[in-house]
Amino acid sequence: MPPLLTVTGRDVLFAHWPLDPAAVEPLVPDPLSVAAYDGRARVSALALENVAVAPGALSVPRGLRRGFAQLNLRTYVEHGDESGVYFLSLDSGSRLGAAVGQRAFGLPFRPAQARIRRAGDTVRFTSRRRTDAGDAAVFAARYRPDGEAYAAEPDSIEAFCIERVRYLFPAREATAALPGDGSDGVVVGRIERDPWELRPVDATVRTNTLLAAAGLPEPDAAPELRYSPGFRMGVLPPETRD
Questions:
Q1: Is residue 12 left, alpha or beta, with left meaning phi > 0 and alpha meaning psi from -120 to 50?
Q2: Kindly report the CA angle at 9 between 7 and 10, in degrees rounded to 5?
Q3: What residue spans define the domains of the chain?
Q4: Architecture, CATH, for domain 5-241
Q5: CB under 8 Å, gap of 24 or more: what pairs does 169-177 form?
């Protein structure tokens, strides 16, 4: 099946916070359920630069690329035999990118003041979005790769949090552009990509009100941090499951 879009990104920071599943459950709508690793749910922020977005399987020539910063907040869910990520928010430094992601894929994209800057191999990422409640969802971090590249091992925390190729949300939340019909089913979106190239990271999360803005409690542990130099993925048409 050909992809709807091909997305290329780089300089990805993964930050995973362990939380009590009971704290995450109110944010996960039926018929989905929270997935746990070692008895704890995970909520993850992904800070990255979307370098290029192209229709189908096309690639954007380097001279025509217009990158923008993006910040994804997600947790991990199950529905029957399906498992994947559930997006709590996707903050985009591109208003056009946010509008397309929201209308075409039914995902909670929002425009944000997001930017990414580099000095050598050090990346500085900031994102700020005003919430419906009037407060701010802010995330600011400095990071750089620090160690040898590796791939996620089976049953590892990286496999649970990072090596995901499906996202799920209730069919009743689908937009007119999606095959959801307002039923009690689930929309399953899929991506195609090679396994992530991961590296340890020297990172400092300087500001984080992202979880609080989503209605989550303050984590009782430091985030588990990883880095990837980048990715290229094909976004396949979503499908509805009963």
A1: beta
A2: 170
A3: 5-241
A4: Beta Barrel (2.40)
A5: 169/29, 169/32, 169/86, 169/87, 169/106, 169/107, 170/29, 170/30, 170/31, 170/32, 171/240, 173/29, 173/106, 174/106, 174/240, 175/102, 175/103, 175/104, 175/106, 177/103, 177/104, 177/105, 177/106
Cα(21)–Cα(43) distance, integer angstroms = 10
Output the tens digit of pLDDT for each of the chain's 242 residues. 788 889 999 999 999 999 999 999 999 999 999 999 999 999 999 999 999 887 776 665 554 456 899 999 999 999 999 999 999 999 999 998 898 888 888 899 999 999 999 999 999 999 999 988 778 999 999 999 999 999 999 999 999 999 999 999 998 766 545 554 556 789 999 999 999 999 999 999 999 999 999 999 999 899 999 999 999 999 999 998 87
Phi-psi map region of 152: left, alpha, beta (phi>0 left; psi -120 to 50 alpha): beta
CB-based contacts of 40: which residues, under 8 Å, 6+ apart? 18, 19, 20, 21
Strand pairing class (224-235; 109-111): unpaired
Residue 182 DSSP class: S
CA 233 to each of CA 93, 123, 190, 208, 213: distance values in angstroms, whole numbers, following the listed order: 19, 22, 10, 28, 29
